[in-house]
Amino acid sequence: MATAAVATFGFLHPPMRKPAISPLYILPLPTQPHSKTHPRPLPLPRRRRGGPIAAFPNATSPSTNASASPTYDVREAEAAVAELLREGGASPADAAAIAARAPAYAAMLADGVRELDELGLWDSWSSGAGARLSLSGAIEMEMGRLGFRRKMYLMGRSRRDHGVVPLLESLGVRLSSAKLIAPYVAAAGLTVLIDRVKFLKEMLFSSSDYAILIGRNAKRMMTHLSIPADDALQSTLSFFEKMEARYGGVSMLGHGDVSFPYLIESFPMLLLCSEDNHLKLLVDFLEHIGIPKPKIASVLLLYPPIIFSDVENDIKPRIREWEKVGIEQGYIGRMLLKYPWILSTSVIENYSQMLLFFNRKKISSTVLGIAVKSWPHILGCSSKRMNSILELFHDLGISKKMVVPVITSSPQLLLRKPDQFMQNVLFFREMGVDKKTTGKILCRSPEIFASNVDNTLKKKIDFLINFGVSKDHLPRIIRKYPELLLLDINHTLLPRMNYLLEVGLSKKDLCSMIFRFSPLLGYSIELVMKPKLEFLLRTMKKPLKAVVEYPRYFSYSLEGKIKPRFWVLQSRNIDCTLTEMFAKNDELFAEEYLGLGGLLEKPLQSSIGDGKPLSQCLVLRRIAKHWVLRILLHSRFKKKLQRCGFQLGTGRRTPHTFV
Q1: Taken in order 426, 431, 432, 434, is the CA torsion positive or negative?
Q2: Are 379 and 351 in contact (CB under 8 A)?
Q3: Among 17, 336, 507, 637, which one is most buried in terms of CB atoms within 10 A?
Q4: Which parts of the sequence are annotated with region: Disordered (predicted)?
Q5: For residue 78, which of 140, 161, 169 has the smallest C-alpha distance?
Q6: Closest by alpha carbon to 478, among 523, 525, 511, 437?
Q7: Which residues, 6 or more positions from 521, have their beta carbon under 8 angstroms from its beta carbon?
Q8: Poorest-confidence range of 198-212, 254-268, 585-599?
């Protein structure tokens, strides 16, 4: 018990000397060592709930005389505890609710009463512990003749915990821990503590919308921490490890009924934080720096030492430290929401080491700033781990210049362990992709190397093979469009495949299209596939087989390229395949269809069919816009461009009426 007391109440130790940046005020020190130094944390004992009050085996009928009827009624036990709570200032409703949720406390009192009954030691108790009761100077009557409920009440009063122990047990705190915590918080008064508990629960667990995200972030923060932890961070890790020792682990952090008892056991001085003078001011400040009120609980649960911190003396100076190294104030709130540990002295000091490391690697500190803003979890990563990943980048042929966009777009790669990163490299090697191409894929889609091989990448490959895509075609498909591995199967790939099948394509056709044009499945149904297919079938009167032969058709802009070229060719009564229509660039298309072959010597019509504007002029204006430096030097185009209403040298079209 003494060991547990020291472990739970580290604040009894002498204070440590403050570092250069004043540490967050944490009274209880960690109860468990950090898992980075102790990979196997000690298991915590399972919480024990008190069962029914024990009864004598020879019980007969209830009576107010305990010696005549030794059966202990659970209801009477709860009533005695409720009476103690009401005497401490609790309302009748609160007293009844707390007493009903404190069976272990009632059992403890009942055990004491039963032991004194069995041994006949009430007289000794009256002159000892009972003498402290001072009931009008004397006990009302001989203790042995009192009823069970009265004895329970007097036994509870003799403990002088003022109802705090049953209050803590009603929150889910173990009775042994509650008895240790009570002496340090009882001075606040029972009514104050009851109101404070309600306020804390409302502040931390009023919304369950973010409970899953809180749990995921806690797991991620624990997993990727590879720097020494200061006292505040160590106590947080110990709290998380307590949660990990129970069913559900830290994923239950956002669920108050589960995590609140552990929070009180790890940080009992929470119960001494004034609502008006401290907690409300803290909430207002966090809102002021840009954290939405519903998400404030996430910050506080992921780093409880913030709750004890003084806004002016602790939190603001740390924020200024980040501003000094170039993190704008507008980003502080976002970073704090993603990674509350940025207020830890360990993390602040590690950023200085990261700056030195990037300087040695001749990578701009601006790159690190961008990476930290988007993925602040890397602040808990040691330079040694980051160096091992950068060495693997270099092995794939990624130069220092090429590594910059990789880090800025996917800074989470710096948190990968070398063996995890190599699993992704081996995945491409097994597919037949060489090292140089793997490096190119890393530069183009670094997010792929942050994905899990078994749960993400291999599932996509197996899905494509099962659909009918040839295994021999996969290396080419992935080389051409590696982003395919990032598309969700159920929400992206399947709906788009099903749409193409529904319009009349066969599985064989679709597999052929994917092989010919890998990005096909990356296009939205509503924004790309559907409008372009409708124009192809209804307006262009092309067969569906046309897109099988030329699936790249979906890559062209409907308004910027498909329609203008179609109107020009239709106006000239030219029928051609999709390949002939779109494979040429604007300059070659103009040479073949807009004049050099004599096509524009024929009379021009003012409109075509259903009233579409003269598209030759649209094409010419588009050519002039995108190829102006080339075409304006070509004297044969000048008059034609001017005739279409394009002012050379100004980039503006003049009003012009076509006849």
Answers
A1: negative
A2: yes
A3: 336
A4: 31-71
A5: 169
A6: 437
A7: 484, 487, 492, 493, 496, 497, 514
A8: 585-599
Q: Which two tokens stand for residue 341?
A: 């540990």
Phi, psi dihedrals of residue 494, rounded to the nearest 5°: -60, -50
- Average per-residue pLDDT for the chain: 80
Count the helix, strand and coil residues of the chain and give each as a percent rounded to the nearest 5. 65, 0, 30
CA 175, CA 164: separation in Å to the nearest integer?
11
pTM to 2 decimal places? 0.74
Handedness of CA 310, 311, 312, 313 (dihedral sign): positive
Structure tokens at 473: 């075609």
Q: Structure tokens of 476?
A: 């080419």
Q: Which CATH architecture has domain 451-555?
A: Alpha Horseshoe (1.25)
| C-alpha span between 80 and 61 (Å, rounded) | 20
DSSP state, residue 22:
P
The predicted structure's pLDDT at residue 617: 54
- Which three-class secondary structure state does DSSP give residue 163? coil
Indicate the DSSP class of residue 39: S
| Helix segments in 251-410, DSSP class H | 256-266, 280-288, 296-302, 305-308, 316-324, 329-338, 345-360, 365-374, 383-395, 400-409
DSSP state of 469: -
Give the span between the Cα atoms of 356 and 349, in whole angstroms.
11
pLDDT tens per residue across span 565-591: 999 888 888 889 999 899 888 888 888
Report phi then psi at 141, rounded to 5. Answer: -155, 175
Cβ contact 354:65 at 8 Å: no
Q: Which residues of 555-576 are buried (b: 16+ CB within 10 A; e: fewer)?
A: eeebeebbbbbbbbbbbeeeee
Strand partners, 608: 612
- Degrees to nearest 5, angle at CA 91 with 90 and 95: 65
- Nearest 5°: phi and psi at 608? -125, 125
Six token digits for residue 11 = 């604040």
List, as one string, the DSSP characters of 386-451: HHHHHHHHHHTT--HHHHHHHHHH-GGGGGS-HHHHHHHHHHHHHTT--HHHHHHHHHH-GGGGGS
> Would you state the structure tokens that stand for residue 496, as one six-digit string?
């788009």
Q: Which tokens sit at 46?
A: 């399972």
pLDDT band at 123 (very low <50, low <70, confident <90, very high): low
Please name the residues in contact with 577: beta carbons below 8 A apart, sequence gap of 6 or more. 546, 549, 550
d(CA 305, CA 233): 8
Largest CA distance in the chain: 126
pLDDT value at residue 478: 94
The amino acid occupying position 442 is L
Q: Locate the domains of the chain by residue range.
A: 1-37+206-374, 74-171, 382-441, 451-555, 556-659
Rounded to whole angstroms, the Cα distance separating 384 from 227 reads 10
d(CA 102, CA 163): 11
Distance CA 558, CA 581 (A): 13
Residues composing the chain: 659
Q: In the predicted model, is pLDDT for residue 442 greater than 80?
A: yes
Q: Which of 491-495, 526-530, 544-548, 579-583 has the lowest mean pLDDT?
A: 579-583
